[in-house]
Specification:
- The chain is α+β, with helices and mostly antiparallel strands.
- The protein has a single domain, classed as Peptide Deformylase (Alpha-Beta Complex).
- It has one helix and five strands, in the order βββββα.
- Strand 4 and strand 5 form a beta hairpin.
- The model has no long low-confidence stretch (mean pLDDT about 95).
Length: about 70
């Protein structure tokens, strides 16, 4: 993640890695750098539900399970 908003919200999340739900804090908007399927570098801003999903998956990459 390159940057994120100062605004944070708390949302109940579920995960396919385990049963149940948990409250999780997420940034309202984020900017991320990534490579597409052709390994072309990209940088993009996301907000709302898409930003929440990206943050959830980034947590998994860092070993965090909700």
């Amino acid at each position: 993640m390159i940057s994120h908003s100062q605004s944070i919200y708390e949302e109940e999340e579920a995960c396919l890695s385990h049963g149940g739900t948990k409250m999780a804090k997420k940034y309202v908007s984020i900017e991320v750098a990534y490579q597409d399927r052709n390994f072309k570098k990209k940088k993009e801003k996301f907000n709302g539900f898409v930003a929440q999903v990206i943050q959830h998956e980034m947590d998994h990459c860092e070993g965090i399970l909700i």
